[in-house]
Design brief:
The complex is a heterodimer of chains A (488) and B (480). Chain A has helices at 8-16, 22-40, 48-64, 106-113, 156-163, 180-186, 220-230, 274-289, 305-320, 339-350, 353-365, 372-393, 418-423, 429-434, 462-474, and strands spanning 43-46, 75-79, 117-122, 169-174, 189-192, 212-217, 260-264, 293-297, 398-402, 438-446, 449-456. Chain A is an alpha/beta fold. Chain A has two domains: 3-259 and 395-480, Amidase signature (AS) domain (Amidase signature (AS) enzymes), CATH 3.90.1300; 325-378, no CATH class. In chain B, strand 8 and strand 9 form a beta hairpin. Classes of the chains: A alpha/beta (488), B alpha+beta (480). At the A-B interface, helix 9 of A face loops of B.
Chain lengths: 488, 480
């Protein structure tokens, strides 16, 4: 079996038993990148030299008999909105095309400290704004299951890299579904942890109150390993909570007996693909047969989550992205003649259309005279969404829904229709607004494209999510399937 | 002609005396090579996040309490959005709906009348960097060393009605803030910045006129002159049929005029919204009470106590309590030797003059309070004369030596005994027979000349009283 196709937990065991070296694993993954990256375009930057150096450091650490970290020696893809010291971090934007951060994101530091192997910076929609990775200024990433389809977004590069064995695991970021939706489209596991579980320090902000770093992996065990490695309080992020980090691997039990699972009907939206719906219900039936108590539930406020999100996220973005102005770093327009034109031309030339549109929407929503009608109203919806989840969790341990209403769509198919594009996030946005954790795992296929199952849990209860996902995985074989790419 | 009255509100920005900046751990120091005291956070680099400085927040709670404000348990940070190159994130983290302090006041005294000035709000925010316009080329540079320093903003109600009240408010405010130790309050260095909003309206009317905002007022004197000028300018403009434009004006201290900087005809659109990077603050009652318990006796109360306890005039007591350091100094000195008036005169006279010319504060002086007290006791005990004391004090100021040491090492002890003075007196009498005759003939003026001669021989150390007494005795003997 090719090393690049293996999971992190398999490789971890092999490394510990000295059956393989990190250099061999890293070279195998770099070889796979060589083989398929031309078709997939998962990466903006492949950091082969840094990867091999880290692999050697990991091997040295194994040789010395140091206690290994869970990801020591494991190749990791990093979404290109995570700051990496000395390595270009572009956000797939012209304005940051040559930005080299002088520091590491906290999550990256945690990985570096355990000698995880940074294999490359993965592609994304510009500033993580989008659902298809088509909004990258470099190139769109392709879905490894079908190269004429999108991988989802905005962490499309990370999801595609893991699906195509161009990385063993990946770190992405999720604001309204940017980990879960591409995980669903690419048939991998993707988790948005609870807000405050993982430090956001060094994640280039899109919408601060919604942004969260999380894992994209080949299976649930790997997801637990990555989550374990990046979680915990950080003095550099005041939102990051002082909540103890449990042993997530210990939570992986093949047992859902007595667990109460709710299925909120509002997530089976109008326009949902009936095959997606059927696959989700089939998964629910399976969990029921394994001893879970499943019941339908209603959350009427969900109708307003999409419009609320599309006020709040652009509002925060309009302010967060103001710093990209050509003064201190990044692109500066050569057309500038004075301070005002420097700001204007730099931003006019430096940002793509989707980013500009969101900045304008957000600027409008925060303006005096509109604030109450838009921003404040959207915050009120957010409060109602939270209350709605609290109420649901008084009855259920977890909620199960589709991750997306459809499987991956064709490249270019929705780029002309922003509303349809945004509807792809309708099932993932509620957990983002509420701050609760959510995971997407594969529960079926349609036309050889994966179908995603979303499991949402209580605040800081990633353990139960992992337990349900793990039980599902142990009783199915979806996670073992790989796209045929390059192996036909 | 219509008579106008000024309506003035004042915004003050005070740099807080924290060791590190408001949202990062960069050190706070004055000056330094540009951009050496910066980090990804205060440079606003992508991905960086703010973490609030607890001490700065405590300082603003303390200041709010000292200014008689309500401090509610809930407070939060807002973003104030605007583009400017000295503002690294193009938004300033500030406060809006829920400032730390609200609805306070301080009392000021103008022409013997006490007036209450309302404090609308006290809030915390971060400072911006500094633009430097290069002398060559058409480039501008930015120094972010100051960027992200913790600032407190204090806004009054529009209660102020004259330049004198504006200055008095500022004197009192500065005294309170320096007393409680939250800022060093140096207007010249810009650690305390004052921006009055000024308008005028026909006397007896309610409606506010169009206001202008004044900047660059770097001393109490500048505040007085700037406000006085601006009020006069507005009144004259209106009386001659002109109108006032809403704008920011810069005080030119050398020319004594205000100059238009930029118009503010349109209300700035700052798009305030709660900062999603920061959790709201929830102050426990315990924390607020702890800050209240840390408040020292404030200037007004101390002034009143000084008047009562040390029998000082209002003016003297106000001057002595204008800074905490000076008041502490005075109390320590009178504790060592209770010459209340004498010590007050020394501090406010020669001492302050010398401090001013050396450009230092009283607590940085080498003269210890007990030594100033000792000097006054030596005068009272006739060890030295008042004139000698001035010379001794100068040396105390320069070297920090005690007055005893100086008097001893310089042999400056006063000459008062008969055995020492009589030989000198006799010598002067014998050297000046004509003058002695004049005196004996009734010319009282000649006495002074003889005293002068004796003082000359004693090198000024003769005790004036003893010299007078013994000379008169000798002369009467001569006469007899």
């Amino acid at each position: 079996m090719e090393l690049s196709t293996r999971t992190a937990h398999e490789l971890h065991n092999m490394l510990v038993k000295k059956e393989v070296s990190s250099r061999e694993i890293t070279e195998a993954v770099l070889g796979r990148i060589e083989q398929v990256e031309g078709q997939v375009s998962a990466y903006i930057t492949v950091t082969a030299d840094a990867a091999l150096a880290a692999a050697d450091a990991a091997d040295e650490s194994f040789a010395k008999g140091d206690a290994p970290g869970l990801l020591t020696g494991i190749p990791v893809a990093l979404k290109d909105n995570l700051c990496t010291k000395g390595v270009k971090t572009t956000c797939a934007s012209k304005i940051l095309k040559n930005f080299v951060p002088p520091y590491n994101a906290t999550a990256i530091d945690k990985l570096a400290n355990m000698h995880a192997v940074p294999i490359g910076k993965s592609n994304l929609d510009e500033f993580a704004m989008g659902s298809s990775t088509e909004n990258s200024i470099f190139y769109p990433t392709k879905n490894p299951w079908n190269l004429s389809c999108v991988p989802g977004g905005s962490s499309g590069g990370a999801a595609a890299a893991v699906a195509a064995d161009e990385a063993i695991v990946a770190l992405g970021s999720d604001t309204g579904g940017s980990i879960r939706q591409p995980a669903s489209f690419c048939g991998v596991v993707g988790m948005k942890p609870t807000s405050g579980r993982v430090s956001r320090y060094g994640l280039i902000a899109f919408a601060s109150s919604l942004d969260q770093i999380g894992p994209l992996t080949k299976d649930v065990t790997d997801c637990a390993m990555v989550l374990q490695s990046i979680s915990g309080k950080d003095p550099m992020d005041s939102i990051c909570a002082d909540v103890p980090v449990p042993d997530y691997l210990a939570a992986l039990k093949d047992d859902v007996k007595g667990l109460k699972i709710g299925v909120p009907k509002e997530f089976f939206v109008q326009g949902i693909d009936s095959d997606v719906s059927a696959a989700v219900w089939k998964a629910v039936e399976l969990l029921k047969s394994l001893g879970a108590e499943c019941g339908e539930h209603s959350m009427p406020v969900m109708e307003y989550t999409l419009p609320a999100y599309y006020i709040l996220a652009p509002s925060e973005a309009s302010s967060n992205l103001a710093r990209h102005d050509g003064v201190r770093y990044g692109f500066r327009s050569a057309q500038a003649t004075d301070v005002d034109s420097m700001f204007q031309k730099t931003r006019e030339e430096g940002f793509g259309p989707e980013v500009k549109q969101r900045i304008m929407i957000g600027t409008y929503a925060l303006s005096a005279g509109y604030y109450d009608a838009y921003y404040r109203k959207a915050q009120q919806v957010r409060t109602l969404v939270r209350q709605s989840f609290e109420e649901a969790y008084s009855k259920f341990d977890v909620l199960i829904t589709p991750t997306t209403p459809t499987v991956a769509f064709g490249l270019g198919e929705r780029s002309g229709n922003p509303l349809e594009m945004k509807l792809t996030d309708v099932c993932t946005i509620p957990a983002s607004l509420s701050g609760i954790p959510a995971i997407s795992i594969t529960c079926g296929y349609k036309n050889n494209l994966p179908i995603g199952l979303q499991i949402m849990g209580k605040h800081f209860d990633e353990e139960t999510l992992l337990r349900v996902a793990y039980t599902f995985e142990q009783n199915t074989s979806f996670h073992k399937n790989r796209p045929a790419l390059g192996r036909e | 002609m219509t008579e106008y009255e000024p309506v003035i509100g004042i915004e003050v920005h005070a740099e807080l005396l924290t060791n590190s900046k408001m949202f990062c751990s960069c050190p706070v120091e004055f000056g330094g090579e540009p951009n050496t005291r910066t980090c990804p956070v205060c440079l606003g680099l992508p991905g960086s996040l703010p973490v609030p400085n607890r001490r700065a927040i405590e300082f603003v709670i303390r200041a709010s309490l000292a200014l008689n404000c309500e401090v509610k348990e809930y407070s939060d940070f807002y973003r104030k959005n605007y583009f400017y190159p000295d503002l690294p994130k193009n938004y300033q983290i500030s406060q809006y709906d829920n400032p730390i302090g609200r609805n306070g006041w301080i009392d000021i005294t103008v022409d013997g009348t006490v007036k209450r000035i309302g404090i609308r709000r006290v809030h915390i925010e971060e400072d911006a960097g500094k633009l430097i316009h290069a002398s060559v080329g058409n480039e501008s540079l930015v120094d972010y060393n100051r960027g992200g320093l913790a600032l407190m903003e204090i806004v009054t109600e529009a209660d102020i009605r004259s330049a004198e009240e504006a200055r008095e408010y500022l004197v009192n405010l500065r005294a309170i803030l320096t007393y409680i130790g939250v800022t060093n309050g140096k207007m010249e260095e810009g650690t305390l910045r004052c921006e009055p909003n000024i308008s005028v309206r026909p006397k007896g009317t309610e409606k506010f006129g169009t206001k202008t905002e004044l900047k660059n007022l770097n001393s109490f004197r500048a505040v007085y002159r700037g406000v006085e000028y601006e009020v006069k300018r507005q009144v004259e403009a209106l009386q001659s049929g002109g109108r006032i434009i809403q704008e920011t004006r810069r005080w030119d201290d050398d020319r004594g005029i205000t100059i238009a900087m930029r118009t503010k005809e349109m209300e700035q659109e700052y798009r305030y919204f709660p900062d999603p990077d920061l959790v709201p603050m929830n102050f426990s009652a315990g924390l607020i009470e702890e800050q209240r318990s840390l408040l020292p006796e404030l200037p007004q109360a101390r002034k009143e106590r000084f008047m009562k306890e040390f029998d000082l005039s209002a003016a003297d007591a106000e001057m002595l309590t204008s800074t905490r350091a000076m008041a502490d100094y005075y109390e320590e000195a009178v504790g060592a030797y209770p010459d209340y008036k004498g010590i007050s005169n020394w501090i406010m006279g020669d001492f302050t003059r010398m401090l001013n010319s050396a450009g230092i504060e009283i607590d940085a002086s080498k003269v210890k309070p007990v030594d100033l007290a000792g000097l006054l006791k030596m005068i009272a005990d006739n060890v030295i004369s008042g004139k000698m004391a001035k010379t001794v004090f100068e040396e105390m100021f320069n070297t920090g030596a005690s007055p005893k040491e100086i008097v001893k090492s310089r042999g400056m002890v006063q000459v008062s005994s008969e055995t020492e003075l009589y030989p000198i007196i006799d010598q002067v009498i014998s050297e000046n027979p004509r003058i002695v005759q004049d005196f004996l003939g009734g010319k009282e003026k000649s006495f002074g000349f003889l005293v002068g001669q004796i003082m000359k021989y004693t090198q000024g150390r003769g005790n004036p009283q003893a010299v007078n007494q013994l000379l008169r005795k000798r002369l009467s003997e001569t006469k007899g």
